[in-house]
Backbone:
C-alpha cells in the first residue's frame, strides 16, 4: 500500500484569492462578500437586503444590458407596486451609493471597480480589471485543470485543489433562494462535483490515499450526503489498513442516508462493506467458535427474518435449490402500498412501510423471510412447516400455475380492551402474487 502524496496537491490552497492591495475580490460562492486585502467591506451593510439583492442580480449579469422590466420580473415576481420602475430607480440609486461608499472605505483604488450605468433604456454593471470574481477564477481553474488532466499532467491536481478551495457553498446562498438563481447555483455545483471527483480519481490512480482523506474532510462539509464521496473515503481507509475505522464510518453513513433521505446502501457500497468485513477478519486467526459467534451473535431468533433485497434474492435461490431436493412448496408474495393515483412514495407511505415491517416480524413464523424491496413494496416468502409428499422432479414441473393462491391473513395485536384488526385480504388483492416452485 503506497501513499505517494503529490507535493503540489496542497500548494496554494489558502492563497487562491489575489491579495494585491490594488485588487478587490468579490466572493459569491457561499456567503456573499466584497474583500479588500482580505478584509470585508460589507460588515455594516448586511441588513440592506433589497440593495444587496439587486447587487447580486447585477453581478450575476455583469457586463450585460438589462431591461428594467426583466429586473423587476426576476426580483419581484409577486410584487404589487403602483410604480415598479420608480421602486427600481430608488434601489439603483442606493446601489450606486453603496458602491461609492465601498470604494471610499477600501482606500485601495483611485478608479471605480464597479460602474452601474443607464443607457438607451438598459442598465449595465461594468466590472473593471481591478476587481476579480471568485466564479471567474473558479471556472478558469476548472478549465485549465481539465485540459492538463487530459494530457496526464500532474499539475492538474494543484489546479483542481485551487478550484475546490474557491467553492465554499452554493452560489449566492441565502435562505430565500430566488428562481432566477437556481440555474446558476446548479451550474456551479455541477462544476464543483466534476472537479472534486476528477481530483479524487487522479489521487486514487496515484495511490495518494492520505491526500484523498484530506480532500474528503473538506468536501464532506459541503456534500454530506454524497455516497460516491464516502466511497472514496472508505476505500482510502481500507488501503491504509484502517478497516475498523472504515466499518465504523460505514455504519454512520448508512444510518445517516437512511434517516435523512430514506436511501439504502447502493450495490458498490455494500460490495465495499464485504471487503471491509473480510479485511477485519483476515487481521486475526479465526476458529470455529469465533466464526459461530460472528454468524449467530447479532440475530434475533424471534419472528420472521428481515433482510435487504440482495440477501432476499440469495435466500430465494437457496430455497429453490432445497425444493428440487425436498419438493417442499415455497410461497412468494408481494405487498404494495398504493393510492388512487398509483404507487405511493409519500411520508405517509414510508410510515406504513415501517408498520408493515413490524407487523410481519411478529406475525410470520421463524424461517419466513421478508424484505423492503423498494419505497412502496415488501417481498416475502414462506415455507410450510410440514413438507409435502415427495414427488418426482419431472412431476413437480408439471404443476399447474393456475391454482389460486392461498389466503394470507395477518392480524395486528392491539392494546387491552381493543379488538385485533385483520390486515387486508392479500389473496384477493391485485398486488399479491404467489408462486409454487
Residues:
Amino acid at each position: 500500500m503506497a501513499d505517494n502524496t503529490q507535493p503540489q496537491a496542497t500548494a496554494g490552497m489558502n492563497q487562491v484569492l489575489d491579495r494585491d492591495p490594488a485588487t478587490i475580490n468579490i466572493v459569491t460562492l457561499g456567503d456573499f462578500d466584497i474583500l479588500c486585502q482580505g478584509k470585508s467591506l460589507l460588515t455594516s451593510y448586511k441588513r440592506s437586503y433589497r440593495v444587496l439583492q439587486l447587487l447580486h442580480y447585477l453581478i450575476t449579469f455583469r457586463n450585460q444590458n438589462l431591461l428594467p422590466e426583466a429586473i423587476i420580473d426576476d426580483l419581484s415576481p409577486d410584487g404589487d407596486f403602483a410604480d415598479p420602475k420608480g421602486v427600481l430607480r430608488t434601489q439603483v440609486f442606493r446601489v450606486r451609493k453603496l458602491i461609492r461608499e465601498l470604494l471610499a472605505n477600501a482606500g485601495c483604488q483611485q478608479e471605480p471597480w464597479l460602474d452601474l450605468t443607464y443607457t438607451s433604456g438598459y442598465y449595465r454593471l461594468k466590472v473593471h480589471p481591478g476587481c476579480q470574481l471568485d466564479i471567474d477564477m473558479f471556472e478558469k481553474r476548472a478549465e485549465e485543470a481539465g485540459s492538463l488532466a487530459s494530457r496526464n499532467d500532474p499539475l492538474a491536481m494543484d489546479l483542481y485543489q485551487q478550484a475546490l478551495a474557491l467553492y465554499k457553498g452554493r452560489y449566492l446562498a441565502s435562505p430565500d433562494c430566488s428562481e432566477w438563481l437556481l440555474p446558476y447555483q446548479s451550474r456551479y455545483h455541477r462544476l464543483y462535483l466534476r472537479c472534486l471527483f476528477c481530483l479524487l480519481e487522479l489521487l486514487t490512480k496515484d495511490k495518494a490515499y492520505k491526500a484523498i482523506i484530506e480532500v474528503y474532510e473538506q468536501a464532506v462539509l459541503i456534500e454530506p450526503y454524497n455516497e460516491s464521496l464516502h466511497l472514496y473515503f472508505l476505500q482510502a481507509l481500507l488501503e491504509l489498513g484502517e478497516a475498523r475505522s472504515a466499518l465504523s464510518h460505514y455504519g454512520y453513513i448508512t444510518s445517516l442516508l437512511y434517516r435523512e433521505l430514506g436511501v439504502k446502501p447502493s450495490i458498490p457500497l455494500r460490495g465495499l462493506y464485504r471487503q471491509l468485513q473480510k479485511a477485519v477478519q483476515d487481521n486475526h486467526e479465526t476458529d470455529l467458535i469465533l466464526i459461530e459467534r460472528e454468524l449467530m451473535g447479532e440475530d434475533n431468533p424471534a419472528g420472521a427474518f428481515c433482510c435487504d433485497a440482495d440477501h432476499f434474492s440469495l435466500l430465494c435461490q437457496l430455497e429453490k435449490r432445497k425444493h428440487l431436493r425436498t419438493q417442499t412448496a415455497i410461497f412468494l408474495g408481494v405487498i404494495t402500498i398504493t393510492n388512487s393515483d398509483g404507487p405511493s412514495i409519500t411520508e405517509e407511505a414510508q410510515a406504513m412501510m415501517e408498520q408493515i415491517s413490524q407487523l410481519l416480524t411478529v406475525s410470520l413464523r421463524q424461517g419466513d423471510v421478508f424484505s423492503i424491496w423498494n419505497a412502496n413494496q415488501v417481498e416475502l416468502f414462506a415455507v410450510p412447516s410440514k413438507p409435502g409428499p415427495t414427488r418426482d422432479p419431472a412431476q413437480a414441473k408439471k404443476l399447474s400455475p393456475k391454482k389460486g393462491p392461498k389466503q394470507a391473513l395477518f392480524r395486528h395485536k392491539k392494546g387491552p380492551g381493543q379488538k385485533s384488526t385483520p390486515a387486508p385480504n392479500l389473496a384477493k388483492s391485485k398486488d399479491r402474487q404467489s408462486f409454487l416452485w
Notes: Residues 368 and 382 are 5 Å apart (CA to CA).
